[in-house]
Give the backbone structure.
Amino acid sequence: MQTNFIIVLVIGIPLFAAFIYLVALLIRALLKYIRSKDVREEKQATKVSLGEAIKANRLRCQMTQEFVAETIGVSRQAVSKWESGASDPSTSNLIALAKLFGISPEELLHDVK
């Protein structure tokens, strides 16, 4: 009888402790996931796409897609694709857009997702 009790203590207590540890890890992981999800949703709500930033700056400067395209040497369709998010401008075109809008490339990219 005493031997069974010792076996239960030797095997049962560490097994129970391991179970408690795993439950604590699971709870911690779930809390981290919930918090990070809230942060991601908040960031998405405050940020805009690159296309939206390009369009907002174009409209702020009262420029047409055609004017922007002719000025930086691309087609109007390219500007339209950038604004719709179908494609992204190359680095050199991004720099040209920022210069045309009178802002730095960093400002153009500042609130982009």
